[in-house]
Specification:
Blueprint: H1 2-34, H2 41-69, H3 73-106, H4 114-137, H5 140-169, H6 174-209
Helix pairs in contact: 1-2, 1-3, 1-4, 2-3, 3-6, 4-5, 4-6, 5-6
């Protein structure tokens, strides 16, 4: 029974890593879409659907572990943290799709602040990668690095917002105004992806220590 229990926990770990890798794939994909590679829109949608299915599978596995194995102490924290993390991972997939939907509607037009947008997308992607790595390594130092790096994403959001306010303040036609709003929406989704990466990292911290940085 104990050996079977250990295998079930290992399976949970493997599936969490797999779901995290899919999240990293969506960030890479959406960054390239922002740079004009619209051919990747279909691939992004497929990966986001895989993330959604992984969330359901992991959730079911966790519930079976709780009901059948009744884990205690550290193991219970691991399972409960996994349930929290997969929710944030799924939201990352959803928000990359939201960004892709905006890019799809542009039909060849370009968003404003492209250089800053690319930098922000890469920063958010870096946070997701670090948060997944913090889980794989069970690394508290990396957890704190993820949480601190959220300031980088927030600062880029503020920079882009100020530039957009400046553009709109100079007066612009309706079409250009819509592009500015679309750009702001994309930055907000990227900012939320950074927040979800922070959440993942702090749930890793909880699984290790029983405490969670807010």
């Amino acid at each position: 029974m104990r050996e079977q229990y250990a295998k079930q926990l290992e399976y949970l770990h493997v599936e969490m890593v797999r779901m995290g890798a899919l999240c990293e794939d969506t960030i890479t994909c959406v960054t390239r879409i922002l740079l004009g590679e619209t051919a990747l829109l279909e691939q992004l949608q497929e990966t986001a659907q895989q993330i959604e299915q992984e969330e359901k599978d992991i959730e079911n596995h966790c519930m079976r572990l709780i009901l059948k194995q009744q884990p205690i102490a550290t193991d219970l924290r691991t399972v409960s943290s996994a349930l929290r993390m997969i929710s944030d991972m799924n939201r990352i997939g959803v928000q990359t799709q939201d960004i892709a939907d905006i890019c799809r509607c542009l039909k060849g037009k370009h968003l404003e602040c492209e250089a800053l947008l690319r930098e922000m997308a890469e920063a958010a992607g870096h946070m997701v990668t670090m948060s997944v790595d913090s889980f794989v390594r069970q690394d508290l130092e990396l957890v704190h690095e993820v949480v601190g790096y959220d300031d980088v994403v927030d600062d880029l959001f503020d920079q882009i917002k100020k530039e957009l306010i400046g553009i709109l303040g100079q007066g612009t036609d309706e079409e250009h105004g819509e592009i500015c709003i679309d750009t702001l929406m994309v930055t907000k989704y990227l900012e939320r992806i950074g927040d979800h990466a922070s959440n993942i990292a702090t749930w890793v911290e909880y699984s290790i220590t029983g405490k969670r940085t807010k």
